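To fix ideas, we now present one chain and its tokenised fold:
***
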Amino acid sequence: MMIEVKVPPLSESVAEATLLDWRKQAGEAVRRDEVLAELETDKVVLEVVAPSDGVLSEIRHTSGDTVTSGEVLAVIDDQAVAESATPPATPAAKAPAAAAEAPAETTPSLSPAARKLAAENAVDTRHIRGSGRDHRITKADIIEHLEARGGKTDRPSPAADTAATGGAPRPEKRVPMSRLRQRVAERLKQAQNTAAILTTFNEVDLSAVKALRSRLGEAFERSHGTRLGYMSFFTRAVVEALQRFPVINASLDGQEIVYHGYYDIGIAVGSPRGLVVPVLRDADGLSFADIERAIRDFGERARDGRLELEELSGGTFSITNGGVFGSLLSTPILNPPQSAILGMHKIEDRAVVVDGEIVVRPMMYLALSYDHRIIDGQDAVQFLVAVKAALEEPARLLLEL
């Protein structure tokens, strides 16, 4: 019987996906639930698995094709027997094959799309660690490598401008944007063009939080199996402030303001494919340990490309931490349809005046970007002051003050 292999259901916000590569080729035997191909959406990389045992008799789409939910990618014949790809090696042929194994072991596995892009850009893949299964190098890994080196290739581009260097070629290469990068660009530009974005700033003294982590951090980790980071404090402080200023947790739908009675907090995390924002559902009901475990899990699965589409949709408010990269101050852009986002930054010892005395304290600048169409400056400022107050006296978070 012929069994169709289809594109898995995509979320409402994801209309299509790009076929990255095939793990199997036509004529090869496959096992039920074995990964056949990888699809890249604007949010995650999805694995397409075999619905049954059999032989992959037909492949209908190639690497780079755009596909939609439910579209047939391939066909499996569950009654066929796989054809032998190569005849058994003779004793005389085994020695050369064995000799070839050593260099093969040092050559990383590439998807077809990655191999094509690497060849076009003269990329030496021996020093790239793949993000795919078993460290297989994907097209997204090649794109990230090219972006990291500024789009330069390992050989001069024939089209490079040589006038300024006396005839010597200058390296230059065009690199295609990944689907995720395209979607991020589209959404950020949409936010700038649609919302009336304004940013308000404050600074917070993290002495109390830092002391609490120093005093109880080891006990917390022994008890809960996860370290006590800063994000749990900020998430709890944000939820407390959102409860006091519900318009910050609202969104605009046409001519109506939608006040959300729940607190789904998006936490921006980095991944090899770019920035993604998984959502902490019902964050008001989560403990410090719950938050820390969830954020750690998000980070690990984002690096491995294992986040689910449902985890990246929704959200009523977002937190982004540029401080982990050394950012001292920034103006974050809204994540539509949310109306506000909190930007955390680098913790830096600075001289401040406390009770008339100059002292050194661990300070952080906070930035709240918000949609001025529905949020007044007074609410935005008071919200940020409430976050500051909760962090400077973390006991408030436990006593709900």
Q: What stands out?
A: Residues 187-399 form a domain with the Chloramphenicol Acetyltransferase fold (CATH 3.30.559.10). DSSP finds nine helices and 19 strands in the chain.
